[in-house]
Amino acid sequence: MESIFHEKQEGSLCAQHCLNNLLQGEYFSPVELSSIAHQLDEEERMRMAEGGVTSEDYRTFLQQQPSGNMDDSGFFSIQVISNALKVWGLELILFNSPEYQRLRIDPINERSFICNYKEHWFTVRKLGKQWFNLNSLLTGPELISDTYLALFLAQLQQEGYSIFVVKGDLPDCEADQLLQMIRVQQMHRPKLIGEELAQLKDQRAQKTDLERVLEGSDGPGMLDEDEEDLQRALALSRHEIDMEDEEADLRRAIQLSMQGSSRNISQDTVQTSGTNLSSEELRKRREAYFEKQQQQQQQQEDLPGPISHSCERPTTSLGALGSELGDAMSEEDMLQAAVTMSLETVRNNLKTEGEK
Question: Which domain of life is it from (predicted)?
Answer without folding.
Answer: Eukaryota
